[in-house]
Automatic annotation (TrEMBL):
The active site is at residues 11, 136. The keyword Transferase applies. Belongs to the GHMP kinase family. IspE subfamily. It comes from Rhodanobacter aciditrophus. This is 4-diphosphocytidyl-2-C-methyl-D-erythritol kinase. Residues 197-260 form the GHMP kinase C-terminal domain.
Length: 282
């Protein structure tokens, strides 16, 4: 069987409203997830030797903690072949930036190995398997932009506009749990109806807490806001600003302070992983 190469896209939270807190500490939220065409690239090759290998190692992430490894382990019991797998990872998505690279790698692994190992799960089964790896895994598995509710698990397909985005990463890593446990986080944004999700100019309830804890995010937000309605994705640290024209996005990018990593990318309402998988011939 030929190797399978797939992109694993990042995502943006076009807004993120926190509408409540549950007894188990998890938060009720409402958000719109949209994919971007900035992607990790993953190549899956079946091996005669049993086992799951990942190359290169992600610095600071032991093999057993790598979400690719965890996703592969979840599928091992249902594989119809004794073969192992070698996963080559070309990491392009910044880690811990709120663009979901780890979750996307995990989802892409589930989709790829479901084919290569002939596990024969449908997308709903794969999404259910993946959700314990991270709240964002199901949306990547299902492969369509979505309005999410509950703790992020109730997904309804939506198709927001697909502008160009200038994506900016301040030089800090924001742990999701730190933001969700901060006493200053507001948790009382009134719930909206899905019919308002794409009309309303939503906000990100995590922003004020993230800016307070990470002055560099505050500084980057102040800089990007000069050019328009900049937003934080997820719990940060990445910020983004939408543009109709790629040239405008590139112009602002060229003027960004060099201490920050920046990208120009485009919103996508279907996952590039699914598009590539549909074209794959074994
Ligand atoms: C809130 C989002 C929006 O996209 O943030 P980002 O991670 O993308 O920044 C995600 O859903 C996060 O997904 P993920 O990072 O996979 O979170 P998980 O591993 O499921 O949870 C990490 C921690 O965040 C908190 N958490 C997460 C989701 C939620 N609805 N309520 C919470 O309180 C919990 O403390 C949990 O232990
Ligand atoms: N394959 C992977 N890619 C990225 N991060 C991973 C991976 N496996 C485990 N991780 C861990 O997950 C953390 C969150 O990663 P990521 O999904 O990129 O961030 P976020 O949820 O903020 O978008 C990383 O800091 C890293 O420790």
């Amino acid at each position: 069987m030929s190797p399978l190469t797939l992109p694993a896209p990042g995502k943006l939270n076009l807004f993120l409203h926190i509408t409540g807190r549950r007894e188990d500490g998890y938060h009720d939220l409402q958000t719109v997830f949209q994919f971007i065409d900035l992607c990790d690239e993953m190549t899956f090759t079946l091996t005669d030797q049993d086992g799951i290998q990942i190359q290169p190692e992600i610095p600071g992430v032991p093999l057993e903690n790598n979400l690719i490894y965890k996703a592969a382990k979840l599928l091992e019991p249902s594989r119809k072949t004794p073969k192992g797998v070698l996963v080559k990872l070309d990491k392009k998505l910044p880690m811990g930036g709120g663009i979901g690279g780890g979750s996307s790698d995990a989802a892409t692994t589930l989709l790829a190995l479901n084919k290569l190992w002939q596990c024969e799960h449908n997308l709903e089964q794969l999404a259910a398997l993946g959700k314990d790896l991270g709240a964002d895994v199901p949306v990547f598995v299902l492969g369509h932009s979505a309005f999410a509710e509950g703790i992020g698990e109730k997904l309804t397909k939506v198709a927001p506009k697909t502008p160009y985005y200038l994506l900016l990463k301040p030089n800090c890593h924001v742990p999701t749990v730190q933001i969700f446990t901060d006493k200053h986080l507001t948790r009382d944004t009134p719930a909206i109806r899905i019919s308002h999700a794409l009309k309303l100019d939503g906000h990100n309830d995590c922003l004020e807490v993230v800016k307070r804890l990470y002055p560099e995010v505050d500084e980057a937000m102040t800089w990007l806001t000069q050019f328009g309605d900049a937003k934080l994705t997820g719990t940060g640290a990445c910020l983004f600003l939408a543009f109709d024209k790629i040239d405008d996005a590139e112009r602002v990018r060229a003027s960004a302070p060099k201490k920050w990593q920046t990208w120009v990318c485009r919103g996508r309402n279907t996952s590039p992983t699914h598009d590539a998988l549909d074209q794959w011939i074994a």
